[in-house]
Amino acid sequence: MSDRSEISERFQELRGEQVVYAIDRQERTFLPPAEHCPLCPTVPGGEPTEIPFAAFEIAVFENRFPAFRAPHGAAEVVVYTDAHTGSLGTLSAERVRALMWVWRHRYAELGAREDVEYVLIFENRGVEVGVTLHHPHGQIYAYPFLPPVPALEQAADARLAGCAPCELLARELQDGRRVVYENDGVVVYVPYAARWAYEAHVVLRAHRPSLLECEPDELDALADALQTLVRGYDALFERPFPYVMAVHQAPTGAGSLGGGAGDGGRAAQDSGGDGASAGGGGHLHVELYPPLRTRDKLKYLAGSEQGAGTFISDTLPEESAAALRRAVADRVVADGG
Amino acid sequence: MASPFNPEEPPPHSPGRSPGLREHDESTEIFGRIELTRHVKDDGRALILYTPRKADDETEARRA
């Protein structure tokens, strides 16, 4: 009988990728009622939760049902607030700005570990993308190997003979039709070859391999852009907008960040003359993959997407961007921005 | 019905609970515009609580 808590990897030869088996996750908490939410604070005299404090602002803890665990990676939960209801869009601007620093801290600390090759910060929002807890939160996986997507981004850098996100950002700004929102530090656009109807990329204007290389005002700009986008999403169809959000950063390369987070990752910041993180490549950006293609219709990954790996889209990125741009602008006006 | 808060016998809908802390560290670390305190839960998992700092010290924020 195998240990149910054991985590293992198998290499899928036909896809050339690792598959992770964490079968204990089959037992993880699944859509509990609000009064049984494990991410809420433990109120005095009340029943214990994952966070045994009566109140908190942002909390991070090791996932009880991890896909990775030391000494072979890590899986963490990032709880945005002690309020059970809400979303990234409804948090205060100050809280979202603080969240950027929490992300930066976790990237630095996890990325400094010898057993971590890549740190992925992400959020799944909505039951449509498999959320099992409604309390506003995200997750972090620290992979003991380089996953396929960052490897493909490195290949794109090689193909374009430079930083691919820098090149793609320049193209989007020159074209302009798919730009949804801009501020001083960040541009939001529906990419030229979006796979999802309302896919959006939130890209730092300056070449920053990771959160570690960002100036404080750039982190503020990132927080502002993310919150503006998700509020626009919710306004688009006047309903909570499900998405998968993934923070793309430079691979950390088996502890090569060094120094941990004690000095805020300054060692990594100083190690590259061009500001590159130790793992090589990477340009900080956040990608959002919403499954909705209309207010009540989902895009499914079906025959072509799963069998051939080719997305078939029912929408044009230019038209989606125009609709999303209007929703964002209306929401900014409504918010008094 | 079993209590959903008994860590040894969690109900199917709510197994993600922890009874408390093994180690409680009151010391605070500063990281740019946030500060944090580290704790260890009863089952050995790490828990970090973060609090935003006032953005009135730009120099310190830049150092992190």
Instruction: Tell me what portion of residues of chain B adopts beta-strand conformation.
Output: 25-35%
Query: What is the makeup of the main sheet of chain B?
Result: 4 strands, antiparallel
Could you report the average pLDDT of chain A, rounded to the nearest whole number? 91
Question: Which overall shape of chain A is indicated by the principal axes computed on the Cα atoms?
Answer: globular
Main sheet: strand order of chain A? 3-4-6-5-10-11-9-8-7
Overall mean confidence score, pLDDT of chain B: 70
Can you tell me the residue ranges of chain B where pLDDT is under 50 for at least 5 consecutive residues?
A: 1-18
Distance between the ends of chain A? 59 Å
Poorly predicted sequence stretches spanning 5 or more consecutive residues of chain A: 263-279
> What percentage of residues of chain B falls in helices of 4 or more residues?
under 10%
Strand content of chain A: 15-25%
Tell me the number of strands of chain A: 11
* Biggest sheet record of chain A: 9 strands, antiparallel
